[in-house]
Amino acid sequence: MRSIHALLWVGRRRAAKDQRLAGVAILFPVVIMLLVGVLFGSNHPAPIGLIIKSNDQITQRLVSVLESSNSVSLHYYNNLPQMQDDILRGRVVAGVEIPQNFMSQVDEGKNPSIDLIAPAGQAPAITARTIVTAAVAVVSSEWTAALQASKKNHISLDKALAEAEKLTNSAETLISKKVSQQQSPFSYTAPSNLVLFVFITLLGASSAFVDTRKLGVFSRILAAPVRPISVVIGHMLGLFFLAIGQCVFLVVIGRVMLGVNFGDPLALGVLLVVLSLCAAGASTLLGTVAKSSEQAIAIGTVAGIALGMLGGCMWPTSIVGPAMAEFGHIAPQAWAMDAFVKLIYNGAGIGQILPDVLALLAFSVILVVISSTRLRHVISNK
Asked: What are the chain's domains?
């Protein structure tokens, strides 16, 4: 425990003296958060394009549900190229194409397939996607319930549909449960930049580990009856406090200045702890691999940005396709972003984000084990 405490104290002193960390940990995330939020965020109804290929009863109901939402405004198109062109020009944030077989899909009890085209990383596009998904769920549920009620109670389908619509207590109320109409335009950029810069900051801070290693400090420590895992944990704890401080600061900025509701405080606190542990583990591992402090900073910056892109910090993983989204979860950032989206957009609690928390915890444990093995190997081959 003494060695862990000593390494923790040294790490905190070194971090406090490194002025570069202040810019990367505090200034850059806030500036990027503001710029991206102002450029891509909006509290106004998100304009979405709509192509209707059928005129059946369920499609009409879906359109009326979308029209009733205060979170989106509809722009109708006759052809896909024109709608795609307006999406590229920013006239609409997303496009929806309702297929001819929409009613038959619902009739057969299938999950209806709606084609939605949206650009990457824009908060209004995320809102539009969620609104459309919620609207399809409302319409499908109403139709299924009406069919069952019509058969069971021997009433007309139209009457059963009317009763089902009453039970939903208006589509606008149902949709507002899925997405808050007062959602901050920074609701995605705030957590995404938090995750991105926590990893970039700590991966860059691995240069301190490299310097300490090159000076032979770890060799002298390990000459005593101290295990490599104790050295790794001691160094990680110093980085952990740096990361948790950065996380808390950015959450406060997001909540107070940008109006972002991060959701359940307990779930948020647990998420920030495991996120900080994971970032600290990644930094320690890089510190055992890099050959110089300059190399550690260079690799850390590139790796932090690349993994951030893969993990949804630049754009939501939901828009890149199922296969790519699954592949993106090789990066811990993807699990962190999944948890933040659940907290902010779905009002989730600790139970709903538990799989993401456990995944980040598993990453942390694996990184500790690998770092300890690497440190022993590096010291023995020196």
From this structure: 2-39+185-380 (no CATH), 44-178 (3.40.190)
Count, in order, helices (H) and strands (E) of the chain: 18, 4
What number of other Cβ atoms are within 10 A of residue 347's Cβ? 14
Nearest-CA neighbor of 23 among 191, 195, 197? Answer: 197
Quick check: 33 and 44 in contact, CB under 8 A?
no
| CA–CA distance, 292 with 165 (Å, rounded to integer) | 66
CA distance 196 to 236: 19
The residue to which tokens 């710029």 are assigned = 35
For residue 4, what pLDDT band results from cuts at 50, 70 and 90? very low
In tens, the pLDDT along 143-195 reads: 788 878 877 877 787 787 777 666 665 444 544 544 444 567 788 888 998 99
Q: Give the HSE-up count for residue 65: Cα atoms under 13 Å, Cβ half-sphere.
A: 27
Give the HSE-up count for residue 74: Cα atoms under 13 Å, Cβ half-sphere: 17
Of 206, 370, 374, 197, nearest in space to 298 by CA:
206
The token pair at 309 is 């892109």
